[in-house]
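Here is one chain, start to finish.
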Amino acid sequence: MGKQSHNNAFMKKIFCFLFLYIIAILAAIAQQDPQFSFNKLTQLTVNPGSAGNDGAMSGIILNRYQWVGIDGAPKTLVFSVGSASKLFGINSGVGFNIISDEIGFSKNISVGIDYAYRMNTGIGELGIGTSLGFSNMSINAVWYIPESDYYQTPQGTTTEASRLAFDMGIGTFLRSKDYFVGLSVTHINQAPIVLSDETRTFLARHYYLSAGYNISLSNPLFELQPSVYFKSDGAAFQTDFLVDLVYKKRFSAGLNYRFNDAICVLIAAELNNGLKIGYAYDIGTSAISSYSGGSHEIYLSYSFDLGKNRNKKYKSVRYL
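Its structure:
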């Protein structure tokens, strides 16, 4: 019985290794952008048009641990800050993003700055923006399964490799009191990355569409905020359907259904004026879910009003 249990555990490691190896290879080929359950809060990382959309200076630190319990599973760290601005006397928004995304033997670090020109329209404030930055891809040539002699070497590599590529993106973001709509494209220049003579890849272009609406309920203390988040690299797509119930514009609880992947439970609270914390747990619905303990995501953010009254309450993207 003990031997069978040991064999099952070893086969589980082999399965998880091969699964993540394939995912890592696909990530190296397609450069799939990382996913987030709190996708309304990470808009700036994929849509420069959203910079400064809430009229405040806002920063967020977010950690995501995907497929917990599986060695080599994705781990993502985000630092993002954006602000409304009067750059050169023009109504603008600026932003700065650092993203570290690691899966298997592949690690990608991207750094970018955002600029958005903002204008008032009859249906809301529109931001049209662009992002410029760099993306660094690195791979570890040999990846071992823990507690075994099984290993795999990425095809075409004999040593560790790391390459830097220039990156660009564009986006638009429309926001009003009751709704928001965003449309953007990342890696628009599809920068090539040559890791070795035999391993050549590129930053695949990704397309994003997001939208949300604020529904006032009969009890004025509660609001319902449904939203949708869609991304595609032209070959595959991912869609999130999120519903948040917000209380007093400070506390929220939500459910997010990620098509063919997971059901996510989200909670968030404003601890003080502008200081927020949130946690999300993903319950997997795909085949890998039986081999992992789910996915965890936690963030800490802070925002303050840029007007004369710094203690003034504001309305962020999450609390419309």
